[in-house]
Specification:
Length: 217
């Protein structure tokens, strides 16, 4: 079972705001229905073998949101030097909302499909959360101080993307391609709708201007 990672920031600064990335219950469930506390005794941990685990959805249903989350991370990175608050907001919305469950699911599938050992999967999942939380923390510092985002933010972002790519590398290529095709199709549909809305808005403005110029009767 892949446990919940701890925040990769100084203990004195472990505020809940750094640990809430991707923690929405709207995300797909993965893992056990009960998590034993780290200090649980051997008898309690022994019970975990009897705890029924949630049935995972097909792997492709997790890969798509993770691919979209990667795109969103790249977009957030482009805001780093402009608006730290906006970049932080992007880490908590869209595909990154609920990313915890999707990442854990990829980790579990990598073990089930013999693409990674349990410890390797645990390390990949943990590394992703530590990297994204460190990225968020540097953004928080910039937001709080009102200064430019430190160069470390870019390094943490690259660490986040790198660990995400290593986790995606455990997924069979055919499944990644299938999920990518679906993501591209959805994005194309969104772009088409946005273009139609923009065209309709422009036409409405032109009509308003023409009516304003028309002689009054």
């Amino acid at each position: 079972m892949l446990g919940r990672p701890s925040c990769a920031v100084p203990a004195a600064l472990r505020l809940s705001v750094f640990c809430d990335i991707g923690s929405s219950r709207a995300g797909r469930g993965a893992g056990s229905m009960l998590t034993l506390p780290p200090g649980a005794g051997a008898d309690q941990r022994g019970l975990s073998r009897y705890i029924k685990k949630k049935q995972l959805d097909p792997l492709v249903t997790y890969v798509g949101p993770v691919l979209e989350a990667r795109r969103q991370l790249v977009k957030a990175g482009k805001l780093v030097g402009q608006d730290a608050a906006a970049a932080r907001s992007m880490l908590r919305t869209g595909a990154l909302d609920g990313v915890r469950d999707n990442i854990r699911a990829l980790g579990e599938y990598s073990v089930q499909n013999s693409q990674a050992q349990q410890q390797t999967a645990d390390d990949l999942v943990r590394a992703f959360f530590q990297a994204i939380q460190a990225f968020d923390y540097t953004l928080f510092q910039a937001q709080r101080s009102g200064t430019h985002t430190p160069p470390a933010a870019e390094a943490h972002l690259q660490d986040t993307l790198g660990t995400l790519d290593r986790l995606l590398a455990t997924v069979p290529r055919t499944i990644v391609d299938e999920a990518q095709a679906k993501v591209d199709m959805i994005d194309a549909s969104k772009q088409s709708l946005e273009e139609e809305d923009a065209a309709a808005l422009a036409a409405s403005k032109r009509l308003t201007q023409l009516l304003a110029r028309s002689p009054q009767t």
